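Example record

The entry below shows one chain as it appears in the dataset: sequence first, then structure tokens.
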Amino acid sequence: MYDEPMILYGKSIHLVHSQPIFMPDLKSIEEQLFRISKPEEFNALSLEIFHFQYANNDIYRQFVDFLKVNPFNVQEYTQIPFLPIEFFKAHQVTTTRFKPEAVFTSSGTTGQQTSTHEVKSLALYEKSFKKTFQHFFGKTREMVILALLPSYLEREGSSLVYMADKLIQDSAYEESGFYLDNLQELADQLQALQKKQIPTVLIGVTYALLDLAEQFPIAFPELILMETGGMKGRRKEMVRSDLHAQLSQAFQVKHICSEYGMTELLSQAYAPKKGVFLTPPWMKVMVRDTNDPLSYLEQGRTGGLNIIDLANLYSCSFIATKDLGKAYAHGGFEVLGRFDNSDIRGCNLLVD
């Protein structure tokens, strides 16, 4: 057991590392989280995972204790404390001790401290993103997957590149693949796929999609065009509505899809159209009051986004992000920007 200082809300606290004291049936939990279909099932599993992570995650337990929250008094998922995402920059946020199968890192400009997510089970990550992708877009085997992710391919440790690579591998079409700066080749491929009427998904970082749209516009109304956000300092930031209008005009598609994901999560939300994101059943987004981070706002009001990702079983499933947004009655949410005092995230820098 040892102490580690941490500054939180202007106060110095000590993170005391100790041994696990509670171990549920983890295989059962992994199976249950992908079978959630009712609110009561989500609540029950959230509480079980909360108690598991409180007992076996040193960082999270000390954060909960610092807030003076008695875990035995937590009866609803809305009462669960959310760990500030900044902890992933300075600490190993892991539940139980393990040798990670992968270490994902966030992107950032020179001098910025990046987040690290140690992943115990890549199989769990793959199951999460594959089931989510299929839920929103269909079977990857039956479509061409094209990934225009130059800035992510140029560095190691990208969870987005890992996801795109596995989706590409699952495709039955040999045309599927990555593209770096070879926009002409990508444009030729899109032309050929459009002529053959093959179902196609193009996943791209925002600035690269704009480059493609400006240099090689193509009428491909059937294309599923998905932006992952991020100008990476290559272009001026744009409001999402303007970006989507520009891309829609260049490719003659009715809607632009958006992906909401981050290094610290193992699940993604998708906005099939109009910038309203939807989550898989094991993920939920709530909006906290920016002036009182332990309180929640009613639907339609702007605040900080708190995310429950039950697939984050071996890190932390309850994360307070630095994103601003709104939640709606049907379970969807919008991302409206970032806190002024936060680092710029590589993904989803778009604002409305």
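Notes for this example: The radius of gyration is 20 Å. Residues 1-20, 342-352 have pLDDT under 50 and may be disordered.
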